[in-house]
Amino acid sequence: MKITAYIVMVLLCFVTPARAMTMADLFAALREQPVTKLDTLQAHDSALGVQAVHDRFYPVLSGVMSYEKYNSPTNLRPVTPTESALLLASDGSLPFSETISRIGVSMSMPIFTKELFSLSKQAASISDSAQVKKRISLLERQALLVGADANLMHLDSLTKALTSRKASLKKTWDDISLQVATGRLPETEKIQLDEAINQIDLTFLQTSQQESELRKNIESLTGLFLEEPAPLQVNGALDEGELFALQPLQKNIEAREFGVQAAKDKLYPAIVGTAQWFHNYGEAYNTGDDVDNEYGVLALTLQMPLFNKPAYTAIQRAKVQLRREKMSFARTKIDLEAKARNLNTTLNLLGQSKELAQNSVKHQRELLKVAKVSYASRRMAQEEYLRFEEKVLTAEANYYLTEARWWETFVSLAVLYGNNLDELIQ
Length: 426
Fold this sequence. Notes:
Blueprint: H1 2-15, H2 23-31, H3 34-55, E1 60-75, H4 81-89, E2 96-112, H5 114-181, H6 187-222, H7 247-265, E3 270-283, E4 290-303, H8 309-376, H9 382-416, H10 421-424
Antiparallel strand pairs: 1-2, 2-3, 3-4
């Protein structure tokens, strides 16, 4: 009994159909692809650019070791005249040597550097731009995915329509074949139907090739092979506020503005703090004894640029780059606003076209029923009947193609306005 139950369970596993893919599954797979993760790394790299500027506010601490050889005795540390006199009076070792070894630490720290504040803001704007670009790239790939799936649905529906047309023609072919066999109709009637069926088979193959190409595109985007197209359904309305696609350019303008300020900041005074401590070793030149001592310094330095020609040129270049960024923004804004208006118009027209195309399919199917009856009763020529079959197929193909174009237009508009396709499409 246990063996039988196990066999039944195994068979059920093989027989139970796999769950159909949804757009949520495809979107989730898209997020895990290397190209999406590359965008994430790029955005992370930009965020580290902000941290890199902030790091310049921190002190720099270094360990120092040196061995120095001089051509005349040199002091290990400064010696005052009174100390020198006392050492000589007591036959002490003067801290002067031709070879000096040093070990110690050195530290420097910006106390006030105005440029760093502007560079920090510039890096933040660049990081924000990278984050927006990352989101736009994801939305664009999601839009490509939806478009490919919509076209796959179009071809899948077209395949079903072709199957229906072939079945319809095959039924007529069966009726005609009997009449041709009994001599009631000429052989050409059957040959013409054979050719009509052959054309449908040819269209089947062409459709299969297009489906294979679309499945390849979907697999490239998601890493998944899609057997059947995922169903598409709009969940809510488009949010047509500001053009989201302009945000990276706006952030770039901000970055250029801070770049101009950073170039100007090079002309401001800077205060730098430094500290050094060394332990020095050497052989006193006057006694030959080993001497070692410690020596340290702490300093605040005001650096005031009096003339810095490269800085003036850098300011001019930064201003030119800012103007170029603004011109690029103005040009792109015009293009995107025109594109948005065109997509809105196209979307409305395609919505109306879908209704008209659906009515056309209904009407052509009804006319085909009448044509079948007329042809069967020999009140209609075969050529005219085949035209009705062709019109039904054309009407169905036009409807499915219009549906696919509507989805492509819809997601293109959604990307422009930065709508969340994960929530908008189910």
